[in-house]
Amino acid sequence: MNLEALLASGIDGLMLGFVYGIAAMGLTLIFGVMRVINLAHGPIIALGMFSVYLLTNQLGLNPYLAIPITVLLGLAFGMVMYFVAVNRVINEPELTTLLATFAVSLIIIGLGTVAFTTTPRALDVNLGALRSGQITVLGTKAVAVLIAILVAAGLYALLYRTRVGKSIRAVANNRSAAEIMGINTRGILAFSFGLGTALAATAGGLIATLFAFTILSGGTFELKSFVIVVLGGLGNPTGALVGGILLGLLEGVFTIFIPVGWVPVIEYVIFVLILLVRPNGLFGART
Amino acid sequence: MSTLLEIENVQSGYGEVQILWGVTLKMEQGRLTCLVGANGAGKTTLLRTVMGLLPAKQGAVRFDGQNVTKTSPHERARAGMAMVPEGRQLFTDLSVLENLEMGATPNHARAAMKQNLEWTFELFPRLKERTNQIAGTLSGGEQQMLAIARGLMAQPRVLMFDEPSLGLSPLFTLNLFQIIRKLKERGLTMLLVEQNVQMALAISDYAYVMNHGKIEIEGEARKVRELESVRKAYLGA
Ligand SMILES: Nc1ncnc2c1ncn2[C@@H]1O[C@H](COP(=O)(O)OP(=O)(O)OP(=O)(O)O)[C@@H](O)[C@H]1O
Ligand SMILES: [Mg+2]
Q1: Distance between A43 CA and the closest CA of chain B, angstroms
Q2: Best residue in A173, A176, A180 to probe B by mutation, most B CBs within 10 Å?
Q3: Of B9, B10, B124, B227, which has the maximum CB count within 10 A?
Q4: Rounded to 5 degrees, what angle do the CA atoms A281, A208, A72 make?
Q5: Check: CATH 1.10.3470 for A3-277?
């Protein structure tokens, strides 16, 4: 057993964890504000990947310019999705909203497969690397971490420093009270949903700068997001970021000892354990 | 004297269950109107319907001459209607200040937030000491103050209170009625739904008594107070 290899893999996982965290923040934000579990989360992550890919390869943009554009596209997509698929069932039981978002997921996967096939794509980005012994930090990964931090800080500032952000928290807290204060709660719900999908798409865009992908690649990250959201406490964006970093680190360390194919198994085990032992997440109040 | 809010023959309820059977009520500009009645009479249902949280099956709600029956609650709030709901309905995860900011959502209130905050803190100095405290951690009385203060931050043209004294100590209740009197002196049009019928009738200009989803009695508050039936049913005399 080589300590340096462990450290190298741990650092690698930890950095990737920031990106997982961004994706999970999107899922948990939507759940926290409107109690909707977005089953189109994975496919939207994949759309984020393709958005960056197409903007870069078709329009010739720099991938790091494509990412902010993808944030906006993700926001717009989510707001449209809210009005088309979610708003009509927003007051229905949770199974109904699950089905609505699942339908969107199937549509994205179906159309995406037709449009892009499932042949893997990859971006050609190279920002060099920092090396020290066995430890390698890819430039693309370091930039992904940086962007993830900026996005998380931006979300935090939005939610706690701006009126629209406070309105989002008010709507999450008490929707009918928010409505009688004069807050257009439907608009806030749509915007919150859009923020959630923007985070998912951003995470997808960052992942596309790191790995090859297909339209189906969102699935793995959706699973990770679920684990992280439970880890960090449902509806808690800060918890999701920390949970993401933690999961990334664990993955990095585990893959030294066990084959990569076992990672989803480990993730499910963590998922179930957390649900059993700390259903409010690692940072939530004990029940 | 002009009518600011007019409720005309309103019928409403929850799904198939009808609660209000044609309620007509008027609120004159600058007056304090009270609405009393037994538990389950439909007072909260009426306020929710007036604010638009429940749809009116029949009848109309007119505010400042405009028919608002079909508009959403947030549009009514922006037009100048505000409610301090039963059970406070605070944003318990937000701070005191954030609750007040959310109260000041209508454009005219947003523009005047600073001044409004100042005089609201004058009315409720307790809240000023606790601006950054999370609302859910306030005491019951403080929460009730915050609910009222949040309603005032909307700088409403009409303010409807749904049992504001519920759960308050006698001292707090006295304080609350003093505040309502001050607001009346400032010319605010108000509707007061109260369990404390004695005090409500004492400070109101006009009174409605509701029973089984209908208005049974209405009139000048001091006259309603003298009625034998009212004294028997609500004033324990
Ligand atoms: N969400 C609801 N669904 C069904 N029925 C309801 C609902 N809320 C209230 N009701 C019923 O409507 C009737 C009127 O209730 P409402 O709350 O309007 O009375 P109230 O006059 O405000 O009473 P209180 O003085 O106790 O607050 C009651 O019989 C109550 O059981
Ligand atoms: Mg009531």
Answers
A1: 32
A2: A180
A3: B10
A4: 80
A5: yes
